[in-house]
Amino acid sequence: MAAVPAMHRIMTEIAATALSAEKRLLTVGIFLMIAMMISFVILPRLKINDPARRKLYMALYQK
Question: What are the structural domain ranges in the chain?
Answer without folding.
Answer: 3-62
